[in-house]
Amino acid sequence: MRQSSIRVALCLALAIAAMTAAHAADTPGADAPAQPQQAQDSSLQAFIRANPDCLEFTDQCSHCAVVNGIAECSTAEIACIKRENQCTRRAGK
Fold first, then answer.
1. In whole angstroms, what is the distance from residue 7 CA to residue 14 CA?
2. Phi, psi of 8 (to 5 degrees)
3. What is the C-alpha to C-alpha distance for residues 59 and 61, in angstroms, rounded to an integer?
4. What is the Cα 2 distance to its own chain's centre?
């Protein structure tokens, strides 16, 4: 009876360890490449450089304000259709 209890406990411990390892493999790590974010940042910076008088713009998913030359954007809305950035407010208007 005691041997079967030890076997059950050992099997449970192995199963928990395997689930923990599998979950850790699915979680993005700190060293994961941030290429999509970098590409998005560069496209936002390109839009700002091309439209220096634009203070606010949108892609129909996020709404952004230019603060000190840097775009500060809202979280993208759910189920939106992303379009090209369009200026919604210009300086002096």
1. 11
2. -65, -45
3. 5
4. 50
